[in-house]
Amino acid sequence: MERNPFVLLVFLIVSSMVAAPIHCKKQTQTLGHFYERKMKRSSGIDKSGFKAVHYINKSRVHTQQGMKEKDRIEKLPGQPGVLFQQYGGYVTVDKAAGRALYYYFVEAYHSKESLPLLLWLNGGPGCSSLAYGAMEELGPFRVHSNGKTLYRNRYSWNYAANVLFLESPAGVGFSYANTTSDYDDSGDSKTAVDNYVFLLNWLERFPEYSIRKFYIAGESYAGHYVPQLAHTILQHNKNANTTIINLKGILIGNAVINDETDVKGMYDYLASHALISDETANGIEKHCNFAPEDDSESSRECDAATDEAGQDIYYVDIYNIYAPLCHNSSLTIRPKEPSVANFDPCSDYYVYAYLNRDDVQEAMHANVTKLDHDWEPCSDIIRRWGDSPSTIIPLLQELMANGLRVWIFSGDADGRIPVTSTKYSIKKMKLAVKTKWHPWYLDGEVGGYTEVYKGDLTFATVRGAGHQVPSFQPKRALSLIKHFLDGTPLPDTLNYN
Ligand SMILES: *[C@@H]1O[C@H](CO)[C@@H](O)[C@H](O)[C@H]1NC(C)=O
Ligand SMILES: *[C@@H]1O[C@H](CO)[C@@H](O)[C@H](O)[C@H]1NC(C)=O
Ligand SMILES: *[C@@H]1O[C@H](CO)[C@@H](O)[C@H](O)[C@H]1NC(C)=O
Ligand SMILES: *[C@@H]1O[C@H](CO)[C@@H](O)[C@H](O)[C@H]1NC(C)=O
Ligand SMILES: *[C@@H]1O[C@H](CO)[C@@H](O)[C@H](O)[C@H]1NC(C)=O
C-alpha cells in the first residue's frame, strides 16, 4: 500500500475512513488529534489536577414548570411504534450567555417508576452522545442506510434504566451558546459545571426523578467527564449537607484515565496484536517518555518510531482493529438489511443525514434557534480546550472512598484506549484484589473477563468489542449494564443466560 506522506506529520492520527469524510468529523479521529495536541509542550492545555467549582449561583437554576410536557416527543420521523416515552429539548445552563444544552431522554420499556436514572456521556472532547450513544450504541433506535427511517435496538439500555443522553459541552451537536466566544473557553472544568447545572435544572423539569437512584456512564474522553461530574455532585451534596443528587455510582468504558499509561498501553497493544513490529515497539519503549512531568520535546528517535507505528495502523480502524471500514458513504434509496448484531461501519453517515433533517429536528425540539452550522457527530466549532488533567485516578479514588460503585469496562478489540492501557491505569491504583480474574459468561459463551478490587472497583472486559462497546457487542453490553445497575457481580458460571 502506498505510504501517505501526510502521516509523517502526525502523531497518533487515526482514520477509520477510506471514503474521506466531507462533513463528518468522527469520534474516531477526534481523540487522536486531541492527544497529539495535548502531548506537545506548547499545547497551552492545563494538565494539573481537576478542581470542582464550589459555588454555583442559584440564579442558574430556574423553574421548569410545564416544560417537560413541551419536550415530549410524539414520534420520531420513520420510527417504529414503541410503548415508552421519549423527550428532547434544551436546558439553559447560563441565561446571560445564552448557553443551552440539548438532551434526549428515553424512559424505560418497563418499570420506569422503579428503575434508576442513567446519564450517558460520549467523549471527544467534542463528540455527541446523541450521535454515538443514542443512535449507534445503546439507544432504542438505529438509523437505516437511507438516512430516513429507524429500526429497533433489542439491546437498548432502556431495558435496564431510564436513559438520559446529553450533548455537552455547548458547541457539541445541538447544544449551543449565543455568546459564541464561549466555545473558546471550553475545557474539563467548565464542562463539569455546565453538566451539573444542567442536571439541577433537568431534575426540576422531571421532579419524579429527583430522588431516584442516579448513575453516570460514558466512554472514551468521558473517562474525564464522568468522574469530574460525580466529584462535583459529591462536593455539592457535602457542602449542602443534603443529597441534592442521589448519585450511586459510575461506569466508564475504554476511558481516558491516565495519559502516561493510556499511551504506553496503546503501543503495547499494537505490538501484541501484530499491528506494529517489535523493532518499532522497542524504539518507542527506549526513546519515548510519556510521563506528564516530562516537559522536553520528544526526541527524533521517538518521533521516528511513533511515525512508523502511525503508518502501520493508518488503514486499520484502530477503534476496532478487526472491524471492516466504510468504503461507500452514500445513502441508499432502499435501506440495507439492518443488523444490530453486525455493526455497519458507515453508520455515522446515516445518523448525520437523519439528524440534519428538518422534520427530525422539529420532532426532537432541536435547533430551535436555527444555528449557523450543521449538526455534526463531533464538533467543528470547539477549537480550543483549556484544561485536561493528566490523570483522573485521584477522582476515582475519592468516589470509591465515598462508597460509590465504580466500574471500568473495556472492549478488548479497541486499539485506541485498549485493555492494556486500562489495566496499567488500574494497576497504578495499587488496589487489593477481592475477586480474582475470571471469565464472565452470557449465553454459554465468555462475554469477557473480570476482576473485582477492594474498595468496590470492578474491571470488566467485553470480548470482541471495539471502543464503542454497545455498537459491537450489544447483548454483552446490556448484560454488563444490568449487572452494574443491580450491583451484582458478573456471572462466573457457564450456565448463566
Ligand atoms: C448571581 O447572579 C445574579 C444574576 O446574574 C447576579 O446579579 C448576582 O450578583 C450573582 N451573585 C453572586 C454572588 O455572584
Ligand atoms: C439565544 O438567542 C435566541 C435568539 O435571540 C433566543 O431565542 C434564545 O432563547 C437564546 N438562547 C438562550 C439559551 O438564551
Ligand atoms: C448535617 O446534617 C446532619 C443531619 O441532619 C446534622 O446532624 C449535622 O449536624 C449537619 N452537619 C452540618 C455541618 O451542618
Ligand atoms: C456507493 O453507493 C451508492 C448508493 O448505493 C451507489 O449509487 C454508488 O455507485 C456507490 N459508489 C461506489 C464507488 O461504489
Ligand atoms: C439548524 O437549522 C438551520 C436552518 O435550517 C440549518 O442550516 C442548520 O444546519 C441547523 N443546525 C443544526 C446544528 O442542526
UniProtKB/TrEMBL annotation:
Alphabetical GO biological process terms: proteolysis
Q: How would you classify this enzyme at the top EC level?
A: hydrolase
Q: Where is the signal peptide?
A: 1-20
- Family the UniProt entry places it in: Belongs to the peptidase S10 family.
Q: Organism, per UniProt? A: Gossypium hirsutum
Classification via Gene3D superfamilies: 3.40.50.11320, 6.10.250.940, alpha/beta hydrolase
Entry keyword set: Carboxypeptidase, Disulfide bond, Glycoprotein, Hydrolase, Protease, Secreted, Signal
> What function is annotated for this protein?
Probable carboxypeptidase.
Please, which domain of life does this record's source organism belong to? Eukaryota
What is the annotated localization of this protein? Secreted
SUPFAM superfamilies of this UniProt entry? alpha/beta-Hydrolases
Which Gene Ontology molecular-function terms are recorded?
A: serine-type carboxypeptidase activity
Any one GO CC term of the record = vacuole
Q: What is its EC number?
A: 3.4.16.-
**Protein name, per record:** Carboxypeptidase
**Predominant location of this chain?**
secreted
Amino-acid biosynthesis is among the record's keywords: no
